[in-house]
Amino acid sequence: MSSRETVLNRIRRALADVPVTEVPRDVPVDRCYLRRHGERTDEQSAELLAENLADYRAVVHRCTDAELPSRIASLLAAHGSRTVVAPAGAPARWLSESTGVERVPEDVTAHQLDTVDSVLTGCAVAIAETGTVVLDASPDQGRRRITLVPDHHICVVRVPEQVVDSVPEALERLSPQRPLTWISGPSATSDIELDRVEGVHGPRELEVVLVTS
Amino acid sequence: MSDAASFPQAARISVRNAQLRGNLRHATRTIRSKRARAVAELADWDRLRAAGAAIKDRTLRHLDQYLEQLEAAVTAAGGTVHWAVDADEANRIVTRLVKATGEKEVVKVKSMATQEIGLNEALAAAGIRAYETDLAELIVQLGADRPSHILVPAIHRNRTEIRDIFRRQMGAWGRPAPEDLSDSPAELAEAARLHLREKFLRAKVAISGANFMVAETGTLVVVESEGNGRMCLTLPQTLISVVGIEKTVPTWRDLEVFLQLLPRSSTAERMNPYTSTWTGTTDGDGPSEFHLVLLDNGRTDTLADQVGRQALRCIRCSACLNVCPVYERAGGHAYGSAYPGPIGAILTPQLRGTASALDASLPYASSLCGACYEVCPVAIDIPEVLVHLRERVAEGGSVTRNGARVTIRPAKGHAAERVAMRAARWAFEHPRALRAGERLAARTRRAHPARLPGEPWSASRDLPVVPPEPFRDWWQRTHGGKEAK
Ligand code: SF4
Questions:
Q1: Rounded to whole angstroms, how far apart are CA atoms B113 and B129?
Q2: Nearest CA of chain A to the CA of B460: how many Å?
Q3: What is the pLDDT of residues A168-203, one digit of tens each?
Q4: Candidate from B152, B256, B272 with C-beta closest to A184
Q5: For B390-401, what is the mean pLDDT?
Q6: Is A164 left (phi over 0), alpha (psi -120 to 50) or beta?
């Protein structure tokens, strides 16, 4: 007998008390929990997102679509970045005012990524209640490692289209077939005496730009 | 494991270690109050908790179906699924997979399942070095130590001890710590970052666990803080995930419950810094080869016990450790397995059986105060299972071991009984711990639901789940107080 069969047979014997006629949905799951915690206008959701992101020490900026290129340029300048990796689908105009900053393509090696100063991406959805941005590797977000190896991540969120209130609302918009990265603040650890320290392996600085169209 | 110290022996050592006790008390108190705040933010916490328990029950009652569905989905997405009946088989499978890549080292993200099966030791025996990359696991590994907490495995180490370990040991494993390393957490974290980065960048093989596996889609989920998980899941060419079969959830939608319950309950955060999900392999993004090793190792035996199987709902949040007065006094090492605290006291004797003195003593490592049940995000009635397992140790009976029904003899008069009595006495003789526990329980008892909505297993049985009487009375009644004197 294969181990697969052994395990499955053991499970079936272990569940001898479960009536053979029972199907999974006979086991009730009451989804009476809240779909979102409170009713908010779009602006209130954006504010809550900003507040919760900041609470986990992401740096939040707000601007209009027209201001975005200059805002990105000033963030890169303030960070002293000379190189920025941006995925193929990130609009060229995002970096149109970042003169003197070299745009690195996303398909460089991990070692090369380790020498890049910043990474610039969009996102798939952002969750106000938890202060989370979710990346799904779409063309404007790129493969997962580009937002992991560089030490400084600038993430653009379109308001209100990309903002949801809650975790249930976010999951509904996301495809399980795509590799997802949920990011809530910069990398952190509390492993030393439960003292929160920013930045162990992921980007130590996360800046989120909320762009209103 | 039969030569392992029993709970009271190990606990005594911990209690004598004032440093450990101080570190532990500080840490568990801090996280406890933070957690209460994070939970209080959600008005529907109790409903989420009931839904979490119900989803897990649904899964467990039809686990064979869900595992087959999961296997099909992972395979369709480009992954390869392996089945391991026990620890040895899992270790053999992983060793074979690593050897097939020709690599001599692997990076690992914290996984309780691989710790449970002793994977690092098995790999070492095959000449493969496994590098732990979680900061706490790194501290434990460099200190040639054992983890003592699910979430904060190095909770027993303070910053000065950590600095000394880094200074002394990092060089032997790779990039050494800077000479002038101080004990500030930020500097320690920076040293770990630099030490591990070179390993991540050259690693070809990674080994992980998973917090959840979605049967309908074949998606695996890893919840973490530091980013070492992301490194392991995305940089290497080959990813091997070793996951207990009970980590399955039926649908993508079910994650909406657990991704709310877990971060708040474990790290007391609205959301942990990073959560990664992946389904098989993705062209040009992440590992090109993905292996999932489904681990039984006593889980099906646990499933066969209608009272004890609720332990398989556990999502390893560690909230029960942080409220446990016995854990706070005894420390994590006293539990003698990968699973310390109240969950360890009910899981280990079921996964491994109660043949050894240690495992037989674990169900007694509790004052039955009920605080663990109160905080458990999937409503595992730990006191109920403890009482059930005590009965089994004391009176013997029919259990499932390695898939077969066997009858175990009552422990009365045997070494196991004496050890169990000592464990109980130990919990009993620490009145400060006990009183705190009883106070907590008294405060929370009214809030305990008599029975969870839609919880089929308890519906079919008579409860009183938490014995309504305090531990002292229970002890008097069941043991006549004789041995406790
Ligand atoms: S038993 Fe409950 S509280 Fe304890 S670790 Fe598991 S899920 Fe968390």
A1: 18
A2: 11
A3: 999 999 999 999 999 998 888 877 777 778 878 889
A4: B272
A5: 91
A6: beta
Q: B96 CB contacts (<8 Å, ≥6 apart)?
A: none
Contact A157, A210 (CB under 8 A): yes
Query: Does the beta-carbon distance from B271 to A191 stay under 8 Å?
Result: no
Please tell me the distance between residue B377's alpha carbon and the centre of ligand 1 in angstroms. Answer: 7
CA distance A23 to A15: 13
Quick check: A29 contacting B, CB < 8 Å? yes
Q: Flag whether pLDDT at B468 surpasses 60.
A: no
| The pLDDT value given to residue B472 | 40
Residue B485 has pLDDT above 60, yes or no: no
In chain A, DSSP assigns E strands to: 59-64, 83-85, 102-104, 118-121, 125-127, 132-135, 152-159, 163-164, 180-183, 188-189, 197-198, 205-212
Give the CATH architecture of domain A40-212: 3-Layer(aba) Sandwich (3.40)
Residues 152-211 of B with CB under 8 A from A: 152-155, 158-159, 162, 185-186, 188-190, 192-193, 196-197, 200-201
Q: With cut-offs at 50, 70 and 90, classify the pLDDT of residue A87.
A: very high
Please compute the mean of the pLDDT values over residues A91-120 and round it to a whole number.
96
Q: What is the pLDDT of residue B439?
A: 42
- HSE at residue A212, side-chain half, CA atoms within 13 A, is 9
Q: How far is CA A134 from CA A173, A174, B454, in A?
A: 11, 9, 33
pLDDT digits (tens, 9 = 90+) for B132-188: 998 888 888 888 877 777 777 777 788 899 999 999 999 988 899 998 999 998 899
Residue B260: its H or E element: helix B255-266
pLDDT at B4: 54
Nearest to A184 by CA among B152, B315, B270: B270
Option in B65, B196, B400 nearest A14 (CB): B400
Mean predicted lDDT score pLDDT of chain A: 95
pLDDT for the residue A193: 72
For the CA of B318, the closest atom of ligand 1 is 5
Peptide bond into A150 cis (omega under 30): no
> Could you tell me which CATH class the domain B42-297 is placed in?
alpha beta
Please report the residues numbered 71 through 100 in chain A whose beta carbons come closer than 8 angstroms to any beta carbon of chain B.
Answer: none
Q: Residue B58 and residue A24: Cβ atoms within 8 Å? A: yes
CATH 3.40.50.10420 in chain B is located at: 42-297
Q: What is the pTM of this model?
A: 0.90
φ, ψ of residue B84 to 5 degrees: the values are -125, 120
User: Residue A63 class from Cβ within 10 Å (0-12 exposed, 13-18 middle, 19+ buried)?
Assistant: middle
Q: Which of B133, B256, B271 sits opposite A131 (nearest CB)?
A: B271
Output the CA torsion sign for A119, A120, A126, A127: positive
Instruction: Compute, in angstroms, the gap from residue B399 CA to the centroid of ligand 1.
Output: 24
Mean pLDDT over each residue of chain B, to the nearest integer: 85
Q: Which of residues 179-198 of A touch B (CB under 8 A)?
A: 179-195, 197
Residues contacting residue B198 through CB under 8 Å, at least 6 positions apart:
B174, B175
